[in-house]
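Protocol step 4 of 6: structure prediction from sequence.
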Amino acid sequence: MGLFKTIGIVGGIAGTLLSASVAFAESNDSAITATTTRNVKVETAREKNKVKIETAREEARTKIETSREEAKTRMETKREEAKQKMETAREEAKSRIEAKREEAKQRLADIRDKTKQKLAEKLANQFEELNKKWTDNFIKQLDHYGAVLLKIQERSDIASTNGKDVTAVSASIKSANTAIDSARTAVVAQASKTYTLDTSSVTTSTATTTSRGQDELIKGLRTQFQSLHKALFNDLKALRDGTMKDARSAVQSALQTLSKIPKVDDDSDSTDDSAQ
């Protein structure tokens, strides 16, 4: 085989190898390009999905915050309304009992024993103070129930944005709000009641300057005080075991209903799973 022929063969082989290398490189470049394109598409879709998730989260946060602020505003409004009604009721009651207090004061002045007289005067004013103390405490309890209900509403809103069914919770929250409103009305009505000593029914067969008259006076006043005490605490217990208990039970029911929602404390958005 001649030199030129050998060189020709070698050159042909080299050309074939070069062509194959170029074809392989082109094929490899195409595969890389296709893979890169797919990766870019996947990354683009992932970014779009991420933006979508963040947008949904932000909308959910805004919705929850708006709902929370509206609920807080409603609660504050009702609290202020109840406070104003309480003050008005007490002022009206005060004007009604002023005359009776003056009559009672004059009657108690007939007690010759100064120690008993001071005790009777203290008791005469004690009933109104007790009624005020109890009704103030009831209002504080109702404010607490309202705050608890607000938190339940917040948890319910979060659960709702996570795709949970909160229909039963919403109904329980509505019932609890109604129960709290009814209790507030009942407390205001209780605050307007008066428990003043009625001295017109305290009579004596003889003058109070006599020992017998003093005994009859003390006995009559004691009976009046016992009657007032019974009336006051019967009213307060009826309120405590009635609408106040109903309000507490309604809030507890709303909390129990919320707890029945599966994974109600899971704040993660359901769209997170699709992104993984």
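Step 5 (inspection) to follow. The longest helix spans residues 3-108.
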